[in-house]
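User: Show me a protein chain along with its predicted structure.
Assistant: Here is one chain, sequence first, then structure tokens.
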Amino acid sequence: MSNDKRDTQTGDALPIELNQFVTGVQYPHPFDELAVALCASAARHICILSPHLDHQAFDNAPLADALAALARGSRQTQVRILISDSRPLVGRGHRLLQLARRAPSSVLLQKLPEHPDWRGETIVIRDHDGVLYKPGGSDHEGFYEPNSRASTQKHLELFEELWRHSAQDVELRSLSL
């Protein structure tokens, strides 16, 4: 990452300040850690937009635990996850798919195969004031902006537009036997 600080004696990267703007965020790591930090600090809402909900960035216990805690927090909390392809989640399994199946009223997982406004971005939005963003295409670095209502609002508007056009996917429902 371009904003990381180095220990002057060892040259190792020092921890990221989780309350400051960071550019040059590499994917999937430390994107995954910043996603956990954003989700763990949410008060009411998390929106995740990811074409495939990549296992490397999103299928980890700390993230699932943070979202589960948010979902249990109150009846007003909500986690919305929007993907374009459910096959990897269903075929391989995914912690967030399991969470959506266990808490379907608080954790909503929907599918939008394509939309002209979605260019493959991956976005995590916290409440109305925090965003983690990776542009479409794996060769681009993203940014983390945990305290910006203006930046978050722009990304939230995109998410809301895409969400309106999405639908539940029968592949994502749990089978009761």
